[in-house]
């Protein structure tokens, strides 16, 4: 992609374009599984800590509750996630991955790793470490 000089000076533009490209690459890796990037993010979070509430998941993923709610409902409807009332407090609903999701966990994690490698293939090890650090610093 050939960028005009004013575009290369705008970090917002560059981050947006980098997001579009990386999002598209990851999306292509997920096509065989029939899930979206956001759904994958939710599954990976639940694989780390199965049984979170929607509020806990929202906080961990830094997503607003409205965005997460719609995604979760679609995941429940399509059999990726199940909701269960908390055994100690019936007012609390906990989220769990399903057998359908767990059976392809390794494949999905590998798809993410492959997409990451493809996105970062132009960089040296040092550049990869620096880019991750800089992006994390932007989030603080």
Give a quick precis of the structure.
By secondary structure, the protein is mainly alpha-helical.
Q: Main traits of this protein?
A:
mainly alpha; single chain; 140 residues; 2 strands; two-stranded antiparallel sheet; Arc Repressor Mutant, subunit A
List the helices and strands and how they pair.
Elements: H1 5-8, H2 11-30, H3 37-48, H4 54-61, H5 65-77, E1 81-85, E2 93-97, H6 99-103, H7 105-120, H8 125-139
Antiparallel strand pairs: 1-2
Provide a descriptive summary of the structure in words.
The model has no long low-confidence stretch (mean pLDDT 92). This protein is 66% helix and 7% strand. The chain has one domain (5-120): Orthogonal Bundle (Arc Repressor Mutant, subunit A). The protein is globular. A hairpin with a 7-residue loop joins β1 and β2 (93-97). Strands 1-2 form a two-stranded antiparallel ribbon. The chain has 8 helices and 2 strands, in the order αααααββααα. The protein has 140 residues and is mainly alpha-helical.
């Amino acid at each position: 992609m050939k960028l005009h000089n004013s575009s290369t000076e705008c970090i917002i533009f560059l981050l947006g374009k980098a997001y579009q490209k990386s999002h598209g690459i990851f999306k292509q890796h997920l096509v065989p599984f029939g899930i979206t990037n956001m759904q994958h993010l939710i599954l990976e979070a639940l694989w780390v800590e199965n049984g979170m509430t929607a509020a806990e998941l929202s906080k961990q993923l830094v997503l607003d509750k409205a965005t997460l709610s719609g995604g979760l409902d679609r995941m429940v409807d399509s059999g990726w996630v199940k909701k269960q009332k908390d055994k100690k407090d019936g007012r609390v609903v906990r989220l769990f991955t399903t057998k359908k999701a767990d059976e392809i966990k390794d494949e999905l994690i590998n798809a993410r790793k492959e997409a990451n490698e493809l996105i970062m293939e132009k960089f040296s090890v040092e550049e990869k470490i620096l880019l991750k650090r800089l992006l994390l610093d932007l989030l603080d």
